[in-house]
Amino acid sequence: MPQPIEHEMRDAIALLTLNRPEKLNALDYATIDRLMALLDAIEDDAQVRAVIITGAGERAFSAGGDIHEFSESVRTGVETAVKAFCARGQAMTARLEAFPKPVIAAVNGIAFGGGCEITEAVHLAVASDRAVFAKPEIRLAIPPTFGGTQRLPRLAGRKRALELLLTGDTFTPERALELGLINRIVPHDDLLSASFELAHRITRHSPLAAARIISAVTRGINTTIDEGLRIEREQFARMAATRDVHEGLAAWIERRTPAYAGR
Fold it and tell me: N or C: which end of the chain has fewer CB within 10 A?
């Protein structure tokens, strides 16, 4: 049986491919659970320096939650639906957002609902010029459930986010770039190469420093500036005594490429 997410390594980068193309890579419970298990393993693997997430097939990154499976949970009752669907999806996007290694979404097609919410949660995103986005949950008479009501307004601003959330309309990669949902748009055939190129530009630096930057931004973005600066000081203090700092400073002074040992 094929896995709902395929996992392969290229250099020090893990490529995770949502692998239900016949279902437009919809996020059923098994797919979410598999992603969480892979992230646990990747976090503990010192050889992995970054993660890229994409979708199998030519049509979709992910069309969102598996509605047939979700419908069964709703029929079972509110408590089951909240625990099985909403809490599970929110745990997934929270894990991606706070993951200590850079996570890049390579959005190769449809990114609706939960697929859009993965894009919102990860650290960076590159989109194919064939990508299309939407927040269509209102068509099912529900709000977004994997963090979309919270992350999209923080990225795009309240009024622009509410227009997308309340209409359910699709939007282009150009609009997603304007809203801050993605970092860049590339020709479809260049998507993975562009995503790996971005990952390599990050992984040449200290992985410890990358983790501290991600932590400072993720924790600080929703706090006051004073609290955010305190978090920044904490992250600096965690780095100051590490070998990576001493190596980075020495390499700078000696005008050579630093040799980081990693975690």
Answer: N
